[in-house]
Design brief:
β4 (about 80-85) and β5 form a beta hairpin. By secondary structure, the protein is an alpha+beta fold. It contains 18 helices and 21 strands. The strands form 5 sheets. Strands 1, 8, 9, 10, 11, 12, 13, 16, 17, 18 and 19 form an 11-stranded mixed beta sheet that branches. A 4-stranded antiparallel beta sheet has the order 4-5-7-6.
């Protein structure tokens, strides 16, 4: 079934590329008014319910829309599919008056029915949407008429509006025909119908995704760019070379070495690619598997995924011991790591509070490099080099483990080697494993068949760590460490439910203190987002949410033809 769909898509893309080729010969301005974006991996899905990676979500946001979008101040919101919104007098509900001029890409009229349907899909346990934590405080969603939707909440929260508008709205008239069980394998995931500024016109696996301007977009004068092409180039070096060669117009997350080169080339007027960097939301960490992977799978088969399972979980042979996690965290020199891999574009990170959060300036905690204390902790945990072979051991087991990361990310690949060298000083043998991203997420993480993973997240605007650490998300893909702490659950719920920023900061610091003690992660560094973009694109604005949040406002001056 899928192979036939891809055959059709290949045909579509061939026509599109042929059109582009003819346009180049006949009208350079047509070719000029397109944007080619280089990305490292293929999206796992273009259905907003199943898009997990940041790159997938960024494409999805061009195809679909939300009721309202958060502004760059990370506090206020601008209506989008909603004309306006209003809180009730008791502050326990929000009424959204919807636009009546919105059409789905297939011509159907957008309505309140789509919003109610989307909410029900968000909370459906079979779907297991990764943003479900945003909907925990919502009691119900009802439609008063075709253009009015009311969100009712269980209790007051400063995040009520954010919770309501999080998630792209889906088309009821299409997806009502597909059961939740069948949706994950539906062709809709590779050929979605949205109502955003762009619509998909082609997808060649591992090569291109092509979006065309939606001529029926409700913002009549937008978007200005006719075509957006996401070119999949897994290798960072090749992707950067294609950027400099003019085969790609835009690349984000350029590694520091190449970015420094781009700055030099730009300053010497030897390239038309403009370097830009800004504070984003990305950070890297090591996630430790705290549980025995094999016994975990056996327990699921025997007891299911209910509360009983917690009673039967066994600790990981290495990292189930907090002293071991602390020892390794102390043995990693984060300053050296940042200096080596990212120069002035990375800074050491000590815990889950990144600079976009107001609590960041109040967080004085730093786990400083201390090799001697690390060795002492390992000895106290029973790890010693008993046979003098250069590797510590315990009960006949040598401390040898694998640490995974995703291919195509130079910073992480380099970090693995640096950490490997630093752990040798503890007489720990770490074996680096670099695997393809989709295999890492879809196989290794899903089955929890690993000891350690060096990975990165893009932090949420809402300081809520439920998806990665709370017991309610224990079996969700993002919560892959096996961390379980009722105390953390309570602290995090206080953070989410805080009614003022001051109280939220207090609870966030308490959450961070708890996590810095338990160390399900070893936080490594927070990174600036380094970007290269062709100078012909104007009115380019980036936000911590996404470099493409305002892409519909970008334009190309007609005189800048090839």
């Amino acid at each position: 079934m899928k192979s036939r769909s891809f055959t059709k898509i290949v045909a579509i893309i061939s026509i599109v590329l042929l059109f582009c080729s003819c346009a180049k010969k006949q009208n350079p301005e047509i070719l000029n008014n397109r944007l080619i974006i280089g990305i490292s991996k293929e999206p796992e899905s273009l259905n907003p319910l199943f898009s997990m990676s940041q790159s997938s979500k960024e494409i999805v946001d061009l195809i679909f829309r939300k009721l309202a979008v958060i502004n760059s101040d990370l506090t206020t919101f601008t209506p989008d599919l909603a004309k306006n919104f209003k809180f009730s007098d008791d502050s326990l509900s929000i009424t959204f008056n919807l636009r009546t001029d919105v059409k789905w890409h297939d011509g159907f009229i957008f309505s309140a029915q789509d919003v109610v349907f989307t909410y029900n899909m968000h909370i459906n346990s079979i779907i297991a949407w990764d943003g479900i934590s945003y909907k925990k405080n919502i009691a119900t969603v009802t439609a008063s008429n075709d253009s009015t939707v009311i969100f009712y909440f269980k209790k007051r929260s400063r995040f009520m509006l954010m919770d309501a508008v999080e998630g792209n709205i889906l088309p009821y008239h299409i997806l009502k025909q597909i059961s939740p069980q069948d949706l994950k394998t539906s062709l809709y995931n590779i050929n979605p119908i949205g109502c955003g500024p762009y619509k998909i016109s082609g997808w060649v696996p591992q090569q291109y995704i092509i979006l065309d301007k939606n001529n029926n977009y409700y913002k009549k004068d937008k978007p200005h760019i006719n075509k957006v092409i996401f070119k999949i180039v897994p290798d960072n070096t090749i992707r950067f070379s294609q950027l400099l060669a003019g085969e790609i117009d835009f690349v984000q997350s350029i590694d520091s070495r190449n970015y420094e080169k781009l700055i030099r080339e730009w300053q010497k007027y030897r390239t038309e690619i403009c370097p830009m960097d800004y504070n984003g939301r990305d950070y890297d960490f090591i996630g430790w598997n705290l549980i025995d992977s094999k016994y975990f799978q056996q327990s699921i088969e025997k007891y299911g995924t209910g509360d009983k399972l917690y009673k039967y979980i066994r600790k990981n042979k290495f990292f189930g011991d907090r002293r071991v996690r602390l020892a390794i965290s102390l043995a990693i020199d984060k300053q050296l790591l940042c200096q080596t891999i990212s120069s002035r574009f990375a800074q050491p990170l000590y815990g889950p509070i990144i600079p976009i959060y107001s609590a960041f300036k109040k967080n004085n905690y730093k786990l400083k490099y201390n090799l001697n204390e690390a060795k002492r902790l390992l000895r106290s945990a029973g790890w010693r080099d008993r046979n003098g072979d250069g590797t510590i051991d315990k009960k006949g087991r040598e401390f040898v483990f694998e640490m995974f990361t995703n291919s195509g990310n130079n910073s992480r690949e380099q970090s693995l080697l640096i950490i490997q060298d630093q752990l040798q000083k503890l007489k720990i043998k770490m074996i680096p494993r670099i695997v393809e991203s989709n295999y890492l997420i879809g196989n290794i993480i899903q089955t929890r068949n690993f000891d350690a993973i060096l990975l990165g997240w893009s932090a949420g605007i809402k300081p809520d760590l439920t998806p990665i650490f709370h017991s309610s998300s224990f079996f969700h893909p993002f919560h892959f460490t096996g961390y379980y702490s009722p105390n953390f659950d309570s602290y995090n719920e206080n953070l989410v439910n805080a009614l003022s920023s001051k109280d939220a900061d207090k609870h966030f610091l308490r959450v961070a203190k708890k996590l810095n003690y338990d160390l399900p992660y070893t936080w490594l560094y927070y990174k600036k987002n380094c970007i290269g973009i062709h100078k012909r694109f104007k009115n380019v604005n980036f936000t911590v949410l996404s470099p493409f949040q305002y892409l519909e406002d970008w334009y190309v001056e007609p005189k800048n033809n090839f």
